[in-house]
Design brief:
6 helices, 3-stranded antiparallel beta sheet, Helix Hairpins, mainly alpha, about 190 residues
């Protein structure tokens, strides 16, 4: 179940498990109260192991969130873009000042522009990787903060906790529900 209200679960369940050839869907039907109860059990289980999650996720965040090599690669590509742009501008300026073979000029111009565009694509790909790492890092940081702020024991459903902790849930049976948390971890209840 993606980030949505729990009351949408029944509709989503019907969409994900359509009736084909008059065969009944095998996915168990859960009520909103059963989902809320499972969530409460999952949060309490998470709280019991919160120090472990905080320690492990902090290590993962630091290891996976390091963009030093990518930043270095981006700087190199930025320098190359500057060099390529200057070469194109110099070629254009020279063509404006000095008469030269236009076929040769166009070939050199096309080669320089092509090299610039290739470098720009590489830089854009590196920037996308950096952005994805930073998004993942912020997700983990928010999750760690949420875990640190967990109350000792919850007895009833908290929608803000749901929104901050749960990415999705998979129902394998009435007694087996797996919550995929926003940090990527899964907890089964």
């Amino acid at each position: 179940m993606k980030k949505s209200s729990i009351s949408e679960f029944r509709v989503q369940n019907r969409i994900n498990c359509p009736f084909k050839d008059k065969t009944r869907c095998k996915t168990p039907h859960l009520t909103e109260d059963e989902i809320k109860s499972a969530f409460v059990r999952m949060v309490n289980k998470l709280y019991a192991d919160r120090e472990f999650y905080i320690t492990e996720l902090t290590a993962i965040k630091d290891r996976l969130g390091d963009t030093t090599a990518l930043e270095k690669e981006r700087r190199i590509l930025d320098e190359q873009l500057g060099i390529d742009a200057k070469a194109v501008n110099d070629l254009i300026a020279r063509n404006a000042r000095v008469a030269q073979d236009q076929k040769e000029y166009n070939e050199r111009y096309d080669a320089l522009v092509s090299r610039y565009e290739e470098t720009e694509k590489k830089r854009d790909a590196v920037m996308e990787k950096i952005d994805q790492i930073m998004i993942r890092r912020r997700k983990i940081e928010r999750f760690i903060d949420s875990v640190k702020d967990l109350p000792e024991l919850i007895t009833e459903f908290d929608e803000s906790l749901w929104a901050g902790l749960v990415d999705s849930m998979t129902v394998h049976g009435k007694d087996r529900i797996v919550f995929r948390l926003t940090c990527g971890t899964e907890i089964e209840v």
